[in-house]
Amino acid sequence: MRFFDSHCHLTDAAYREDLEKTLERAQAASVEGVVAVGSTREDSRDALGLACRHEALMWSTAGVHPHHVTEDAAGDETAALREAAAHPRCVAIGETGLDYYYDTAPRAAQRASFEQHAELAGEMDLPLVVHSREAAEDTAAMVRECAGRVRGVLHCFPGPGELLEEALAAGWLVSFTGIVTFRGYDAELVRMVPPDRYMIETDGPYLAPVPKRGRRNEPAFVAHVAGAVARIRDEPLEKVAADTWSNAVRFFGLPEANGER
Fold it and tell me: At what angle do helices 222-233 and 237-252 cross, to 10 degrees?
């Protein structure tokens, strides 16, 4: 049995002192695939560097998180990301999307950045990794706009069910994190998703799952996410691990046999 952490921020300062040990713990926990996600232009280059140094385990993405969008930078983000995205170890565009909870960037600039990321994903034939928080209506509109030309995933899927239905109708995937282990999470969302349309992730260093809640999250803990999903779906852990592995391989365009794209 093997696990795939489809979304982790391994360039975060939280891993600076023990990244190699973190990756060793991941492999000891049967994590055999990790995607290091880019959150800024510089971070995307760093994520790619990590993926190149750990080819047996890791790939990367190139994107600007909505928290880091600025009005003056929105027009040139994709040009800066294109170089990283052209590398074979970079397997997706993003993290992009909308965050109306923190509203750290103007909403119009967030939407413009999201649109530019989607255009770049279509141009480069790469999938799109999308963040959505308190922005379901505008995210759903973008998902509908992308349908048929860009494939994507709503990562760390928070709901609501209507947004899940939009994603599935567009051929997109959703991805579940440790929040599925938190009290109050709508478990019906996990049960609603077909077995070929979801992935699992840590979103480390954030959102450590129960029983690790309160600690720094890391790829090894994705096994706990898988366990929670298996319990909610009333499926064997082996099935959840196999389904989410094959879904990640297909979504990111990875060959099953080796680490080369």
Answer: 120
